[in-house]
Protein 1
Amino acid sequence: MALDPHLLDILACPDTHHAPLEHDADAQTLTCTECGRVFEVRDDIPVLLLDEARPGSGPA
């Protein structure tokens, strides 16, 4: 099952800037367009916890 496109439209980075996220279906990740943090999608559920995100390399 894939993430619902309507959900992807409203998801945002949980950091204070609340930037949009880009979805990579193959890698099962969401990447912040501002800070570059990478959030995993586990069992079709986005894990938007800052403590569990992989560090970003700056703007994506």
Protein 2
Amino acid sequence: MATMPADRSPDSTLALLRAGYRFIGERCDRLGSDVFSTRILLAPTICLRGRPAATLFYDNERFQRESAMPLRIQRTLTGRGGVQGLDGAAHTDRKAMFMSIMTPAAIGRLGHLFDAEWRARIPAWEAAGAVPLYDELGRLLTRVVCAWAGVPLATSQVDRRAVDLHAMIEGPAVVGARHWRGLLARRRAERWIGDLVERTRVGIHPAPADSPLRVVAEHRDTRGALLPRRIAAVELLNLLRPTVAVDRYIVFAALALHDHPAWRQRVHGDDGATEQFVQEVRRYYPFFPMAAARVRRPFDWQGHHFPQGRRVLLDLYGTNHHPALWPEPELFRPERFADRLVDPFALIAQGGGDHSTGHRCAGEWITIDLMKRAVTHLTGGMRYDVPPQDLRLDLHRMPVLPPGRMTVTNVRRA
């Protein structure tokens, strides 16, 4: 049995927070291995990257998600008791609930709402002068996803809800004020949605029959019981929050169009080129840094031993930039997807494997659809200027955004 390469630091938690997205990849390069051991939060941890590692990681016979995700992530980003931390029949049942929502018709309805809201905002952007795209998109997507989900949202509440959804996304991988904002935002959001679930169940709020709110509120688990109020709130937020998080990908798409202006013409009116462009944005730019699981039962892989209960981290960003998978991975080249099918264990920006049975994000199709629509608006629906600003991405920060928040000026309808 080979000795697993190891990061010899007594504990690498602070190093992870300092290194950010490149923590696993830098150590893999230094150790000459796509698997190594370390200690995170004082616990022994195995880190992986690459396609074989992703294929292993999404094997539900070898790994489980229960207790894998650190509590600070559950308490801010995902919520406690959500689908991300379930296994076996409970996961299959809960994932089926989400997949029942992800029909082409439902995704199309969300997309039409998005298009209409984008077009409606252009006059305000024309009058605003400077428009921080990230902030505007957060509010836009909050309005859109709530309308789609059947969640009532007064105009006066849009800013507050958007700020809270952003705070939950920002909170897990930081210490101090940003983390506490994420904790408080999570509590407020679960109260808000929990109250709405209760009102829906007793008929005070008659949500449409096919709305995500109604689906979640009326879902019964494997024992035939309604989801507890808080769990139902967690799961509905697991639809709202990730959809709002697409604003990051749209910002990255706008950044890519700015940095690679030749693609503005290539994607205009060409759905195939737009698809290539969007997939390369998802591969190239940083979104989720890593995913966590625990070893279900002991096994050996590639000469290394994985003991039962050991936490394992899969490097999502590093796999999307692995030179064995992606020639010239640090170059932005959408044409790499011209004749390449999306491999579920190579392009893993939102998890890997199968959507229905595994832990790949159920909302991935929503992400791709909204990104394609946004690229169409950015290249054909409006014109704008990008003033001087700091657009560098600091990969030490998780999650990352350009400091200038992709501010645009002189917006005008095309």
